[in-house]
Amino acid sequence: MDKPDWVTNEASWIKTCKKVVARARDLEENRIGVIVCAREMCKLAFWLRAEDDQDFKVFRDIDSDSAHLPAGQERQRWAQSALQREDVKIAEVENAWHSAAIKAAQSLKQKYESHEKHT
Fold first, then answer.
1. DSSP 8-class letter at 30
2. What is the C-alpha separation between 115 and 57, in angstroms, rounded?
3. Average pLDDT value for residue range 93-114
4. What average pLDDT score do residues 85-91 get?
5. Which of 108, 106, 101 lies closest to 35 in space, CA to CA?
6. What one-character DSSP code corresponds to residue 7?
7. What is the SS3 string spanning 44-103?
8. Overall pTM > 0.85
């Protein structure tokens, strides 16, 4: 991906591009789940001004579908009994979105990984 005209801090932009690639790899290699990946990708899409990108849109849809569910660090603030109940719902969302998330992650990785090789 070529650097957009709006970029004024190239180092920060490249760092954010690398984070997209890292989160995509984390998802592909099962280091993070679909929901955690979606929440991270939504933040990165904002910083890259790429909210309209169809691959980022997949993650926005996942985030919207799972906004009420505890994931990542947030789970530490939930009672164990509540987590057990919500884990069933989390598994349903993770399973429903897994294929679409992997496909979107692979596409984003391909778009943004060129910056990893040049810096």
1. T
2. 22
3. 96
4. 95
5. 101
6. -
7. HHHHCCCCCCHHHHHHHHHHHHHCCCCCHHHHHHCCHHHHHHHHHHHHHHHHHHHHHHHH
8. yes
